[in-house]
Amino acid sequence: MSRNIQDVLKECESRLSGVDSPRLSAELLAAHALGCSRLTLNLERGRVLTDDEYAVVTALAARREKGEPVAYILGSREFYGLDFAVSPAVLIPRPETEHIVEAVEAAFSKGQAFRFADLGTGSGILAVTIAVLFPEARGVAVDISPKALAVARANAHAHNVAERIEFIQADFTRETVEGQFDLVVSNPPYVSEPEFAAASREVTAFEPTGALVSGPDGLDHIRAMLPGVAAMLKPGGRFFMEIGYDQAKMITSIIIDKYALFEEVGVQKDLAGHDRVVSAQKK
Ligand SMILES: C[S@@+](CC[C@H](N)C(=O)[O-])C[C@H]1O[C@@H](n2cnc3c(N)ncnc32)[C@H](O)[C@@H]1O
């Protein structure tokens, strides 16, 4: 039976009706399987697929139908205009995290030579993007997971910044990273246990729990990391951390009440208008 691209997209879309964004998923998976862009897919709707091509597209759709996120099936996700390899060992990069990079771009100038640390680097999106945007910057990328560090290292190599990033396996809630830094960024685990229990299956069944969950109120990692952050920063050093939409008050109170050496404690919102990034500067 001959099937053109349009037929296959329709078939996949209907098969994926139980997951988020069925049409987009179908297009992304078909484009990946056929080695073309979504634009080409749409321009060549009448092209007939070979049996092998059809088999590859439907195999990918079958994975998606079971809830597997598109990024894990494709093995990549875009962040800040750059392509990052991802595996089930790392959190899928989220667009909200781009606000940390925007904050860094506002705080440092392009040619500035500074030292940064990325705590909980996962796929390496923050460390690698900062190294790409600031060619004179050097830094460390820390994660507790060796598998995540392997993905981050591969991404640093792919973007030609590996020689400016040191990858360190450490627990940032217990160990203070050696060195003095001008910038610390982090997107730590900040999902509370009850929130995780109510999250979608796409998240709970596929993404690494250790990258997401942080105790009963979501703040275990943040509380434990702050002494290390305070110690790592040089005077005048900047700190930008992603937070949950309802955590700004609790976190800014902790910083203001317990860390007199921080000033300029602030909160930036994401595009949806939710509190998303906490910032602070060491005096
Ligand atoms: C929310 S993910 C963020 C990943 C990546 N920075 C991003 O924005 O997509 C948190 C990361 O912190 C790491 N992590 C969790 N607990 C840690 C700990 N105690 N010490 C170091 N890394 C930790 C996880 O392995 C995960 O890669």
How would you describe this structure to a colleague?
- This protein is of the alpha/beta class and 283 residues long.
- The chain folds into two domains: 5-67, Ubiquitin-associated (UBA) domain (Helicase, Ruva Protein, domain 3); 85-282, Rossmann fold (3-Layer(aba) Sandwich), CATH 3.40.50.
- Helices cover 41% and strands 20% of the residues.
- It is built from twelve helices and nine strands.
- Helix 8 links the parallel strand 4 (138-143) and strand 5 (165-169).
- The chain is elongated.
- The structure holds S-adenosylmethionine.
- S-adenosylmethionine binds next to helix 7 and strand 4.
- Across the major sheet, the strand order is 5-4-3-6-7-9-8
Bound molecules: S-adenosylmethionine
> How many beta-strand runs?
9
Radius of gyration: 21 Å
Q: What is the makeup of the main sheet?
A: 7 strands, mixed
From the spread of the alpha carbons, the general shape counts as elongated
The CATH architecture of the largest domain: 3-Layer(aba) Sandwich
Low-confidence residue ranges: none
Helix content: 40-55%
What's the CATH class of the largest domain, please?
A: Alpha Beta
